From TrEMBL, chain A:
The protein's assembly and partners: The complex is composed of two ATP-binding proteins (UgpC), two transmembrane proteins (UgpA and UgpE) and a solute-binding protein (UgpB).
Function, in words: Part of the ABC transporter complex UgpBAEC involved in sn-glycerol-3-phosphate (G3P) import. Probably responsible for the translocation of the substrate across the membrane.
Family recorded in the similarity comment: Belongs to the binding-protein-dependent transport system permease family.
Pfam families xref list: BPD_transp_1
Primary location class: membrane
PANTHER family xref list: ABC TRANSPORTER PERMEASE PROTEIN MG189-RELATED-RELATED, SN-GLYCEROL-3-PHOSPHATE TRANSPORT SYSTEM PERMEASE PROTEIN UGPE
Membrane topology of the entry: Multi-pass membrane protein
Any Gene Ontology biological process: transmembrane transport
InterPro entries, A to Z: MetI-like, MetI-like_sf
Bilayer-spanning residue ranges: 12-35, 70-97, 109-133, 145-165, 186-208, 247-267
Name of the featured protein: sn-glycerol-3-phosphate transport system permease protein UgpE
GO cellular component labels: plasma membrane
Gene3D superfamilies xrefs: MetI-like
Automatic annotation (TrEMBL), chain B:
GO CC term (a single one): plasma membrane
Family: Belongs to the binding-protein-dependent transport system permease family.
Organism this protein belongs to: Qingshengfaniella alkalisoli
Keyword list, A-Z: Cell membrane, Membrane, Plasmid, Transmembrane, Transmembrane helix, Transport
Signal peptide annotation: none
Keyword Cell inner membrane part of the UniProt annotation: no
Protein's recorded name: Sugar ABC transporter permease
Swiss-Prot/TrEMBL GO biological process terms: transmembrane transport
Keyword Electron transport appears in the UniProt entry: no
Length: 281, 296
């Protein structure tokens, strides 16, 4: 009886603390969402209110019409993000296959080289990269920015693809060899279907990182029509007339958060397991 | 026989699969790194390009640059304050949500949600929440009676740092939590049950059983969370804009200012090399610690 009472009390306590923590964590997001649907004048009010008195999409329209128009910036961000996913898979899938399934001499050293960008922070490399890109004609291009994002994501992608390929049972590979497959056929027919979860995780992380990345986008896409969403969001703070349009800013915050939040809600399993596999090396 | 010939040519084939990634890293990471070291020895202007050879002149200049030391010290202070906060709060969040009940699962999901939000977006969000006039965080603090007047968060160095720490903690506390949940869940049940039978209370079990058993994860977390703090830029660029009076300029911020605002690329490169050396030293330290632990 007393034990049951105690565990019950403990469960209530845990529930209460959980609800309190949840309230703390969602407070910024909820009030930002509310502020974004207030009429623009109300979003500027001092003192502020938690709830909107009436709903209005005015702030979203203001944000959508900011400078070159939201469509341009969304396109910039999406193109860079999808190019990043493409490059990450294009490079990391074969690299993971090679490292996991072939007896390459000095393999661990090559693997370390691929992880080099963990040791050399990309923030330090932005100036020389700017010069390299000038030489290659990649300045102010989405391909250029996507290449930097790919480099950022390389250690994680290669690591994850390598472990995915290593996890494929040996019997499958032997069956392929008996059938007379060469390594390329084996990759496409046997291995790729087996490493789809790993590829999904790589793509998911590449998208979220690229969508959110700030400093490289700030430096490499510095002409106004090339901005990605985070750079545009920061630029829109100053607004056209110097005063901050708080409602528009919150509409921007919500729009910039939405794709990643949705991906997280629907692909949570891949995200969390990928994070644990990647971080707990 | 067929299988043997497959294996014997396979290492070259394997290398061909790895080659594109290697070439890529060579062009985008290793070559620029060599270029960075080279640039750091020259006067180098964005428009005019390479200038006079300065040898270690840029490094000497860094040594004498007061703002460089201020920013380095500030970055270090920021890292030393935020790391333990993230560690303790992340661990507590893990203890709270490591169970498998529905409310705990839900709470874990909510705490992790801001991790996928960009640091840029979350910094803008908190910039608004902290605003003295329209900020709802101030209003909340006043409404629950924690403070009487709305503070000006970014008016001095300590308040500015506190503001940034609150916002960044909100954004990334879920990372540590997920790591610690995984570590805590892997502790066999009978160990904690044995502790319970021996009469150890909850916090005693946490301190004497769970913390020691998750020590490797704790060490790992300290390293993986300290490095991004040493490289902090977005949150200060957006929330404090380096102010007041340049007191919240971090190392990366100072490199950015020199390279991309004043266009002193050579000097910026020297500062970058110093930063890379520091990060490298930290990473080596981590490897040494893990090796040393492995040997014990």
């Amino acid at each position: 009886m007393s034990i049951a009472g105690q565990t019950n009390r403990k469960r209530y306590l845990v529930t209460a603390i959980c609800l309190f923590v949840v309230a703390l964590m969602v407070f910024p997001l909820i009030v930002s969402l509310f502020a974004s649907v207030k009429p623009a004048a109300e979003a500027q009010a001092v003192p502020p209110s938690y709830l909107p008195t009436s709903l209005s999409l005015e702030s979203y329209l203001n944000f959508a019409n900011y400078q070159a128009g939201l469509g341009v910036y969304l396109t910039n961000s999406l193109v860079v993000a999808f190019l990043t996913i493409f490059f990450c898979l294009l490079l990391a899938v074969p690299a993971g296959y090679g490292l996991a399934r072939f007896p390459i001499p000095g393999k661990e050293f090559l693997f370390l080289l691929l992880l080099a960008s963990l040791m050399i922070p990309y923030q330090a490399l932005l100036t020389p990269l700017l010069l390299v890109f000038n030489k290659l004609g990649l300045q102010q291009t989405q391909v250029g920015l996507a290449l930097i994002h790919t480099a950022l994501q390389m250690p994680f992608s290669v690591y994850l693809m390598r472990t995915s390929f290593e996890a494929v049972p040996k019997d499958l590979e032997e069956a392929a060899m008996i059938d007379g497959c060469n390594s390329m056929e084996a990759l496409f027919r046997i291995f790729l279907p087996a490493v789809v979860p790993g590829m999904t995780t790589v793509a998911l992380f590449a998208f979220i990182m690229s969508w959110n990345e700030f400093i490289a986008a700030l430096i490499f896409m510095n002409s106004e029509s090339k901005f990605t969403i985070p750079v545009m969001l920061v630029a829109s703070r100053t607004g056209s007339y110097g005063a901050i349009d708080w409602g528009m800013l919150q509409a921007g915050v919500i729009i910039s958060i939405l794709p990643c939040a949705l991906l997280y809600v629907f692909l949570q399993k891949y995200y969390v397991s990928g994070f644990l596999n990647g971080a707990v090396k | 026989m067929a299988a043997r010939s497959y294996v014997s040519r396979s290492w070259l084939t394997g290398l061909l699969y790895v080659a594109p990634a290697l070439i890529f890293i060579g062009v985008i990471v290793l070559y620029p790194f060599a270029q960075l070291v080279y640039m750091s020895m020259f006067r180098w202007n964005l428009l005019e390009g390479q200038g006079a050879f300065r040898g270690f002149g840029n490094y000497v200049r860094a040594w004498e640059d007061e703002q460089f030391w201020t920013s380095l010290w500030f970055t270090l202070k920021y890292t030393l304050v935020i790391t333990p906060i993230l560690l303790v709060l992340g661990y507590l969040a893990a203890l709270l949500t490591m169970g498998r009940s529905r409310i705990q699962n839900f709470t874990r999901g909510v705490i992790f949600l801001p991790v996928v939000i960009g640091l840029g977006s979350s910094s803008i969000l908190w910039f608004w929440l902290f605003d003295q006039q329209v900020g709802l965080f101030n209003k909340l603090l006043m409404d629950v009676g924690l403070i009487d007047n709305a503070p000006v968060w970014f008016a001095d160095q300590n308040m500015a740092m506190l503001g940034v720490i609150i916002s960044v903690t909100w954004k990334i506390v879920g990372l540590g939590m997920i790591l610690f949940v995984a570590a805590l869940q892997s502790i066999p049940n009978d160990i904690t049950e044995a502790g319970m039978i021996d009469g150890a209370g909850y916090w005693r079990r946490v301190w004497s059983i769970m913390v020691p058993l998750t020590l490797p994860t704790i060490t790992l977390f300290i390293i993986v969370s300290a490095v991004p703090s040493l490289l902090a830029f977005d949150q200060f660029y957006i929330m404090t804009q380096g102010g007041p009076r340049n007191q919240t300029i971090t190392s990366v911020y100072w490199i950015y200012t020199n390279s991309f605002r004043s266009f002193r690329l050579g000097y910026g490169a020297a500062l970058s090399v110093i930063l890379v050396a520091m990060i490298f030293a930290m990473a080596s330290l981590q490897i040494l610690i893990t090796r040393w632990k492995g040997r014990r």
